[in-house]
């Protein structure tokens, strides 16, 4: 057997051994969607804590499941490990990377899409928020957009900054009495998501907190705030607050690109939930508002990389033709033809992705009159009759160390 055919056999065996992460972990995701977080996380534990080409995926999926199950400390351990894996520069050798030209990306460890690397920090921030470790949460909020800045400046990507990280940071700063820092982030949020409804009160309130009269006038004029609305914003500034962070729907999944089968393309999955209605003590208080769209971000990010992926696949086509031609010349045309068929049969898109992500993140904020007892918070999913929601309810926590208490709830709505 020639060196070329021995190489082909080795590659084929290697590909068979890789397996299909998406199909093999489907039972774990079904448990997750059913709200069986402990069982789901346990089934992914071996893959998350053992080395392998899909370890990063196991870590991200398991950490997400642990977060929804309320095990924030354990979730953070997996997310921190995932964060380190995703940042390794020389993740694969040059020889292995070159081999993907004639095979496919499945033979190398999954490195994570750019937006997935960013969302690791976003989940770390949410975990720290639930653990009341506000400084750590703020660090991760800043890391979200720091990562994006590097991708934009060094990677020359046409990405957008993450409004959710900016808004969470503003909310945390405000709850801790850091009025100036909160105001800076609310203004930054205005640049990222200018029509976000809560900003009309947020910006006026923080301008008032920071005693900047001209800014108060600016926001009052821009948002057409009446005198009654301005007084209400100031009156409620120190009231306790309920914050609901909802993860709604299913993230998109990768399919072969219709224009080039060996390149992946994100395709939306069916989602029946649009928003979540929130009642407090039986009274309707409003609905969650979309803060960050995972689906559109995933699709846009992968589209941004399409030209580079296409160039690599074209180079792969040329490499396959050269290899097959050399084998035909040195051995037998039939062997060269069979090798050519084998190489093209391996030309498949890498469809691995972080599938426990939601379609989007949404938020609800409501201030509660001092002294009012919050006995029941109801969450009604607006969508299909078959949709279900899993959430952890938390009681209001009052503390003299904060300007006002904030109770956070998270909801998994699918």
Report on the architecture of this protein.
The radius of gyration is 25 Å and the shape is globular. A 5-stranded mixed beta sheet has the order 6-7-1-10-9. The chain has a 3-stranded antiparallel beta sheet with strand order 5-4-8, with no helix packed on it. The protein has a two-stranded antiparallel sheet with strand order 2-3. Helix 5 (55-68) packs antiparallel against helix 6 (72-87) and helix 6 runs antiparallel to helix 8. The protein is built from 17 helices and 10 strands. The protein has one domain: Alpha Horseshoe (Serine Threonine Protein Phosphatase 5, Tetratricopeptide repeat). By secondary structure, it is an alpha+beta fold. Residues 1-19, 89-104 and 392-403 have low confidence and may be disordered. Helices cover 53% and strands 16% of the residues.
Task: For the structure shown, list the relevant keywords.
10 strands, 53% helix, Serine Threonine Protein Phosphatase 5, Tetratricopeptide repeat, globular, 5-stranded mixed sheet, disordered N terminus, 414 residues, 3-stranded antiparallel sheet, alpha+beta, 16% strand
